[in-house]
């Protein structure tokens, strides 16, 4: 599944081991949980903030896997952004993604985005930066330093002005690539992530 093949992220050097992974209630949050697990496997020190947990059994399994790997879960996200800046080297934004059914205005997502807009450490957004419209981009969201598009860049990626853009996952069936006229990048060797 695309969830399992999205990481690790080669863009995070070992000298930046502490990562806050902020997960929303839908699919992008589940991808964030998988991301945290992979970061832990590769000797990073992830911490997860997952305030609205999905009842979906698969997502519960991902949560349990993270707990069994001793990845800490925050009970609240500090609104004092300096606390986040001081405690972590980067934030993974897995709050909203491309899921249209989770509106930016709904809690706890709006409060999370209000905080993420003000932090100074790098933000790595998964698939679609939270608060962006997947098609048009929009300016109501955050401004990530790194974008990791899953399967293929979404239309909004044209508006991404950050430092690095990656595509993760070499799992698109050929018929899907052909149907949507996708031209996926060449993945070097056995890599599942490629820089654009």
From TrEMBL:
Q: Which domain of life is it from?
A: Eukaryota
- Where do transmembrane segments lie in this chain? none
Instruction: Write out the GO MF terms.
Output: NAD(P)HX epimerase activity
Residues covered by the YjeF N-terminal domain: 1-184
| CC annotations in GO | mitochondrion
Listed PANTHER family: NAD(P)H-HYDRATE EPIMERASE, YJEF N-TERMINAL DOMAIN-CONTAINING PROTEIN 3
NCBIfam families recorded for this chain?
yjeF_nterm
Protein name as annotated: ApoA-I-binding protein 2
Name the gene that codes for it.
Yjefn3
